[in-house]
Design goal:
- With 299 residues, the protein is α/β, with parallel strands linked by helices.
- The chain folds into 3 domains: 76 residues, Arc Repressor Mutant, subunit A (Orthogonal Bundle); 107 residues, 3-Layer(aba) Sandwich (D-Maltodextrin-Binding Protein, domain 2); 99 residues, Periplasmic binding protein-like II (D-Maltodextrin-Binding Protein, domain 2, 3-Layer(aba) Sandwich), CATH 3.40.190.
- It has 10 helices and 12 strands.
- It has a 5-stranded mixed beta sheet, covered by helices on one side.
- Helix 1 crosses helix 2, helix 1 packs across helix 4 and helix 2 packs across helix 3.
- The mean pLDDT is 89.
Amino acid sequence: MPDLDLNLLVALDALLRERSVSAAARRLGLSTSAMSRTLSRLRTALGDPILVPAGRGMVATPHALAIAEDVHSLKEAVKAVLSPPSTVEIREVRRDFTIRANEAFVLIFAAGLSAAVANAAPGIRLRFAPRSDKDVQSLRDAAVDLDIGVLPTESGELRCQTLFEDRYVGLARTGHPIFDTDPITVESYADWGHVLFSPHADFAGPVDRALAELGVYRDVRLIVPSFPAVIAVAAASDLIGAIPNSYRKSAATSQIRTFDLPVAVPGFDIVQAWHPRMDADPVHRWLRALIFETFKSMN
């Protein structure tokens, strides 16, 4: 059946429902002659007359009667497949989503996001996965539904939405001598030893690049694998740290003070990224919108 197409399936269903070429034509908005030609194609494809004259009307052949319900079911199934996703009742959805994010993000935001999701859709569960890598393949394979953080390096094929703009702030233990200088100067800032978060174990980061433009270099004494570790080290030593401003709340203890950096360091966007294959998924779209609105209310 090389010439069989979906239009023939729709026409066959109309013919079997109406048992009339003219009535089937009206049903599909076609001319009677066009429907007659389609009936001829169907007869050739099926090797059966399908409808034959009987007095003033037409009757279906035994083969046509035998396949009528299957044809109608197939047409409805094809219609469903080729239609946009239907609106879902979000409170009735039962589904798990995996979000890739770094440890600090989870510590600060996971509880709030979980509460927002549970309030609107109790059947949806969130699973946070470590952001040890930022490969696109996990998003392609749906092993990860959303990647939240700084824009992934391989982001060309991804869809991205900015959740909020962030910047770096400095921090040191309460009572640190650096606070004896007001305001904190570039020189007093660089004079102290520093603790640095670096995913690649580099002894230089955005702050160092900004200082280098002024011909100033700080003494990075320690590299740690997360921003919570920066906070912990700074609270227990004389080392100075730098963290995203969004993590300020987690550092708001009697042991730590934060301050504006004395050097201009470029800010950065925190985004949620997903693969285009999930663009039209109604539940995925709902989750993205909820996350966006949740962060919008936080900032």
